[in-house]
Amino acid sequence: MTEIITLENRLPGHAGVLTEEETAALKALWLRLFELFKQKGEAWSPPPPKKPVEKAAKKGWGFGSSKPAMDHTDYFLGATADPRWMDLPLEKAIPLIPGDKLETTFWHMVATDNPDSALLRYLRARKWDFEAAYNMLINTLRWRLFMRVDDIVKLGESGLHDELNRVKPGLGDQFIEQMRSGKATLGGPDRDHRGICFINVQLHHKEDQPFETIKLCALYLMETARVFCGHPMDTACIVFNLDNFTLANMDLDFVKFLIKCLEAYYPETLGLCLIHKAPWVFSTVWSIIQPLLDPVVAGKIHFTKNLDEFTKFVEVESVPVIISGNPDRKTKDEATPATDPPAGNLEVPITPEYLAYEEEKKKYAEDTLAWAQTETKKDDKDDALARLRRALTYRLARIQAEKVLRAKTIYHQKGLVTLTDEGRLYVDFGTPGFPKQDITDRV
């Protein structure tokens, strides 16, 4: 069923209800990007694959016990990018990157989103300072290239398993072990209809796995969670379940990595963060973490002490057994058996849907370039509606191509996400408050 696009129920600073000044900033950001995508950059070829390196044992506030330290070398991440792209200051690194690579990763970042909405996240995060928003955006693009975020999405968990085992035997097995451990799962919704990432800290011990596998799990889940985000609720909820937490579960490196991702590379994505059942020992940890947080992120954090407080934010049907303690009431994720999803491919199959999407990308860019060069008028509702309709055309083409651009996840296998042969995208959390919904036309 096709939804009617309106300008109602849209938050300030979001697509459809921009002020004259905000629209002008959006146009300027588009024009700057189109210029960037023209640059030549420098050619670069990857070096031979890294060999596994043994690390000496270490102690201390990681916060782990004395164990042989895991290998902190990255074998997949960064393997296809010039190290200078991340090592050099932004103004020196960006000119080295070919514009077509920046353009490709930009559109992979946009994915099924309204492209205007993708840019607006950066403008809002930098309080409409155009230069700061542009720098934040291109910093994200170089990071996505270096971290191979597009490859992670294309391969999926099964494809990553195979590719990681290829670059380092056993690494893929360790990745899948983390994915199936219950440390982090997706579900929801919260009471504002956000998708939720549940992180069960009691199941994590820092030295039990390579740090690369933890980073890969985090990136994979963040990109998967984006499928659940979109108008009218374009943010997500993160739950840190600290029941049975001890200092042996603390991983400051991961906390820093996650904070950096949320603040620098996924701006305006976190809507709510719940820290549940934090024990007294967590106060020591919190005194270290709190200064690392941006005030905006810190303002979205709430502490809950028990299930009654927790369910003020999350409907009870969305609460996993590890938090509720009730094995008779499982979430859709917990209650649905599933086989492993099929592996995706680094080389995208050239299907009619993919070719149509590539053509639509070009047409969208042409139309947006022309639009960005027009005079901005005050309260131009016709223009706002036209941009939303243009975004929907793009979104429909991208959704049609999702089957070759995004590998299926375990959440597709369980029916939380469904992409039909007709190109309709459904989300189903399996709760009374959020029945199965067709989100295809939401821009």
From TrEMBL:
Pfam families cross-referenced by the UniProt entry: CRAL_TRIO, CRAL_TRIO_N
Gene3D superfamilies the record matches: CRAL-TRIO lipid binding domain
Residues of the CRAL-TRIO domain: 172-331
Taxonomy, superkingdom: Eukaryota
SMART domains: CRAL_TRIO_N (SM01100), SEC14 (SM00516)
PANTHER family per UniProt: CRAL-TRIO DOMAIN-CONTAINING PROTEIN C365.01 (PTHR46590:SF6), PHOSPHATIDYLINOSITOL TRANSFER PROTEIN CSR1-RELATED (PTHR46590)
UniProt name for this protein: CRAL-TRIO domain-containing protein
